[in-house]
Specification:
Helices cover 69% and strands 0% of the residues. It has helices at 7-30, 37-48. The two termini are 13 Å apart. The mean pLDDT is 86.
Length: 52
């Protein structure tokens, strides 16, 4: 039986994805590489919204 996500689970998942995208994006922005902060934050948030 599949488990459903609660509101807290969703919030935690989104916050962790935002933090991971922020850290990766900051590192890439500091090295002036393509696909910096905003791109990585959006990609990680989008990936966290995918259902298992």
């Amino acid at each position: 039986m599949p488990e459903t996500l609660t509101g807290i689970d969703i919030i935690i998942r989104l916050c962790l994805a935002f933090a991971a995208g922020f850290i990766i994006g900051m590192e890439r922005s500091s090295r002036r590489q393509a696909a910096g902060l905003r791109t990585h934050m959006l990609i990680s948030l989008g990936a966290s919204c995918m259902e298992n």
